[in-house]
Amino acid sequence: MTISVEEVFETVNMTLRHHFDIRTVTLGINLKDCMDRNLGAFCRRIRKRIVEMGQQLNRMADTVEDQYGIPITNRRIAVTPVSLLMEPLPQRESTAVRIARELDGAADKAGIDFIGGFGAMVQKGMTRSDRTLMEAIPAALSATKRLCGFLNLASTAAGMNMTAIAEFGDILKRLAKRTKNGIGCAKIAVFANVPEDNPFMAGAHHGIGEPDYSLNIGISGPGVVRAVIDQNPECDLTELSEVIKRTVFKITRAGELIGREMARLMRVDFGIVDISLAATPNAGDSVAEIVESMGVSRMGRPGSTAALAMLIDAVKKGGSMASGNVGGLSGTFIPVSEDAGMIRAVRSGALNLEKLEALTSVCSVGMDMFAVPGDTPADVLSAIIADELAIGVANHKTTSVRVIPVPGKKAGQIVHFGGLLGSAPIMKIPRQASPKFIARRGRIPAPIQALRN
Amino acid sequence: MAKSVKRKAAAKDSPLCILTVIGKDCVGIIAKVSSVMAKANINIIDVSQKIMGQYFVMTMGCDISKTTVGMKEIQVKLDRLAASLGLQITFQNERIFKMMHRI
Fold first, then answer.
1. Contact A305, A358 (CB under 8 A)
2. Which of A51, A117, A133, A405 has the most CB atoms in a 10 Å sphere around its CB?
3. Which pTM was predicted?
4. With bands split at pLDDT 50, 70 and 90, how would you rate the model's confidence at B90?
């Protein structure tokens, strides 16, 4: 046999002991051809397509799982941004909510975990349809279970839509009030420079530059990376970077194989492998714990930013050697609620909001899944979002915010969301920010970095 | 034989799978696993074993091109055997290993 026992053992161990899995196979579906002036006709078409393709996705994922013995944890669908699909329809909140329910129902019927795309690209301005969708977010996301939303509020090329950012603070508060523990807010992320092929929720959507169908893969291996770091406690950082690269190469190759195989079986285009390290609440499956294994005493303390930057650089180098189709976010997720090490870091006081923001300037793709007191003023939420998105705009990178203002909770308390979302300590944040700055609205012009021609 | 196996392995749908047993060594592991394979008309083409740290690891190269049952069924049968022996058994298409360990 050409493969040695050691190599087989290494691979098998990754799944059996270190939580290696394909975090998600996400099928992007173009729905533009379903558009209609008649809401009923539009809904029938999208439902049919999503149910058919969703069921097929599930079947094929099961087959590939059996073939290769690598668990495919989530099966998801991403659709064309809904605000675009809504353009010819009556501009009422009820229209958006009906579409939301239809998408949710179709995903449910097909047995799909999450369906993304309830969102809009509004980095420069808003169409009437974009406004309708944004206003309907609290009603739509509180009336559905599997539906996820996104808004691209800024980009390096267009600048920052501060009008939309100002309005979003208020939308978030309304959404939080309508759902238990504000959990509805976990289903929407706002972005700067959102990628069109991201397979991860809540930001997944099928961008307008995509083909009819596109199969994207998100791999997950924080446990695997941490295990190899633990096996090399003494080596210097140059060597450690090599060790990480080699490991990520292997898991990305597995992702590439599964993605290509799924796409071949479904007869759709293979899109990308997103090499982001995605944590789960499982013990040992934590990005914060990787940073701590590297030698940082607690995630958030000085040293964390450098360690995280080095980690993700190695991940990117290993990943891009393994696959010619690396895409999506391909940074690191350090969600506060879903990562046991992050929760510990916040509770112990090592990690605060400011440091979380600093980490996103090097490689993390955003301030993700962090909870704040429910009575945080809307303009403070908008200001936090503006700061985070400015980092993305100025650095030509994706940044996002997924924040949950938990009604009735105060800083220091814990909120339990359950399942993959885990639980989150309520973070201490300033109650005063920049109300006058936010109230100015308008657009922050594109930065000088945008002029590259 | 070896030649034809190599040729098939290069094809898109590889007929080769690798069965891995991890756990404590005990009498009859190979016999029991082989019996499941034989009943499914799967040809065993290679067996290796090693002690890796605290684990006993055995790998078996299997040709499933003439098998009479589906992947799912084989997995279910092996899961049952694994549970009865207190071992971990995986059965995976060899392409996953080639992808991960060969450039």
1. yes
2. A133
3. 0.92
4. very high
What residue of B is the nearest CA neighbor of A258? B96
CA distance A326 to A289: 25
What residues contact A79, with CB distance under 8 A and at least 6 apart? Answer: A28, A29, A30, A31, A46, A50, A85, A103, A115, A116, A117, A205, A206
Q: What pLDDT sits at residue A338? A: 85
User: Mean pLDDT across chain A, nearest whole number?
Assistant: 94
Contact B57 A70 (CB under 8 A): no
Residue B1 pLDDT: 39
Domains of chain B, CATH where assigned:
20-101 (3.30.70.260)
Q: How far apart are CA B89 and CA B83, in angstroms?
A: 9
User: How much is the pLDDT for B89?
Assistant: 94
Complex confidence, ipTM: 0.84
pLDDT tens column, A35-89: 999 999 999 999 999 999 999 999 999 999 999 999 999 999 999 999 999 999 9
Q: Which domains, and CATH codes, for chain A? A: 24-192 (3.20.70.20), 219-441 (3.20.70.20)
Which of A64, A67, A217 to mutate to probe the B interface, most B CBs <10 Å?
A67
Q: Give the residue carrying structure tokens 């594109």.
A: A446
Q: Taking CB atoms and an 8 Å cutoff, what residues of chain A touch B75? A: 66
**Distance between CA A191 and CA A378 in Å, rounded?**
18
Whether B71 and A66 lie within 8 Å, measured CB to CB: yes
